[in-house]
Structure formats: C-alpha cells, structure tokens
Amino acid sequence: MGHRSRTIALLAIIFGIALLYSALAATPPAGQSTGQKAAPASAPASAQDSDYVGQETCVTCHDEQGKHFANTPMGKAFSHPKTAAEKLGCEACHGPGKGHVEAGGGKETIPVRFTKDSKNSAEEKNSACLTCHERGNRLFWPGSSHESRNIACVDCHVGHTPQTKKLTSDSRFSAPLTDVHSLKQGQPELCLTCHQMRRAQLQRSSHMPYREGKVTCTSCHNPHGTPNPKQLIQATTNENCLSCHTERRGPFLWEHPPVMENCANCHEPHGTNNPQLLKVRMPRVCDTCHVSSRHPTTPTLLNSVRDFNRGCTNCHSAIHGSNHPSGATFLR
C-alpha cells in the first residue's frame, strides 16, 4: 500500500513540473504581445546608419583621382585590405564621406583635406597618416623637430601620385624615389627647400658626396625624428660618422680628446671651402686648442710666422688616434 502511494505522489510531481514548463514557454516577453517574434538582442546597424559610404561611392565623382590612387603603393595595398582601416579605402584618410555625399559635394564638406588650401591643421592631417604609419622609423615623430614646427606629412609626400619610372629615375636627383609614398622631390632637393643654408654648404669645394650619388640626407638623418640630437640615425655624431669612416673608430692606445668628444669639433659635415671638410684651414683648426707652441726650438722661431704657416699634419699625421710607441704626439 505504501509503495503505491509513493508512486502516485511521484507521478503528480512530474505532471506538475510539465504543466509549469508549458506555461512558461507560452508566456510572451514583457512589452510584446502574443504572436510577435522577439528581436535579436543586438541587431546590426543598417548600412544607411553608417557615416561611411565606401570607395565605390567616392569614385563615381572622383574617378580620375581613383585611377591615379589605384596605381600607388597605398592604393595597391588597399585593394587587398589586411586591416580595418584599409577596408575603408578613401575614407581611411579623408574621413567618413556621408556628409560630403548628402551635401552634393564641395571641398568644405570633406572631413580631412590634404591640399595647401585645406583648413585642416598639420596635426589633423598627420593623425590620418599615423593611423597606419606610426611604427618603424616614424616611432619618434611625436616631439620631433619637424612635428614641433607643424610640418605635415604631405609637405614632403604625395599619396595620390603613382611611382612612375620617370619619377624614380630622374637624373636631377642623387637618390631614386623608392619610398612607399612618392616624395615631392628627390633628396637632397626636397630637404633643401627649407634647409637653405645646407644648399650653399653642399656646393662648396669640400662637400659630402651627394652630387656623386654616394650619400643622401637620410644617410645620416631620420626626418621623422629620433631620440638623438639633430635627428641623427645613430646615438651620437661620432657614431654617425664612424658608421662610414670605420678606420677612425679605434680604440687606440693614444686617443685625441677632441676627436673622442665630437667629430664636429674640427669638421663641418655638410661642406666647406677647406680641405677634408675642416671648419677652418690648417693650422688654425689646431690652434683652436693648441694656443701656444711647445716645440723645442729657438726663441726666434717660437710662434713665428714660419712656425704658424706649417701644416701640423705634416708631422702629426695620426691626429685621429695612434697605437704607435711615439705616444700622444700622434706622429704616426
């Protein structure tokens, strides 16, 4: 009898649970009448709600710019996008174009313009570029001398100009234009547009071999900024110079202190009218430190015109440093 009672009670419990489940399943969500389908929790926004119109919309009017851009390195990269920014096409740089389209065009409705008559600041223009180009040798652009002087990327680079064979092999330029975005001019002409004093120095009789095509401005400097003085590629002036002039590196048993301190104590790297890029002629460059002579000679010869007009390096030929037993006189 007891076993039968337990069975009936168990069946009653199961039946009650089934009724409760059915009632819950039939109850519509709050605020929705029976027969309506519940909307997804996060329905995707429609394309009409986006501020981006797509590159296809841009080229319906800007077809010529689109053709030029397609042949640039950046345009070719955007044709096979790897990042979210590259998928935006034109709007990756110029900003969302919905307002421009709705206004029927017009320069003032483009969020970011890169032309000279643009009202966008250099910082706004550069922010568009740095969205992709913030690494590598542009890492120290914030705070660099060019950035602090409100230089825009487009002051030197042009994003819409294809790299043609004529542009990259122009004989007026000592270095071919192989940058990802074509430079407006080759080096050093582009740099000398602003750095006029260097133009005169590079034309002097003793000069960096830029006219011979052996060096460019970026052989020593990074125009996008470095943590080093003068935007040098290397940490110091000496490291910059010694990356080419390895025979001067040492270490030597007998070091010449001015040389160890800074090559620019004696040399003007961009060009002078003195031999060996010296700031002043021999022996005046030596007289900068060696004010009086210590030669064991007669009083009539000491500091005389004859002594002064002799070239110090006729005897002291190893002035950059020596390992010779003759010691710190740098005779050889």
Automatic annotation (TrEMBL):
Superkingdom as given in the UniProt entry: Bacteria
Keyword match Lipid biosynthesis: no
Sequence ranges assigned to domain Cytochrome c-type protein NrfB-like in this UniProt record: 90-165
SUPFAM superfamilies per UniProt: Multiheme cytochromes
Signal peptide: 1-25
Domain Doubled CXXCH motif: 207-249, 256-293
Name under which the protein is recorded: Ammonia-forming cytochrome c nitrite reductase subunit c552
Native organism: Candidatus Korobacter versatilis
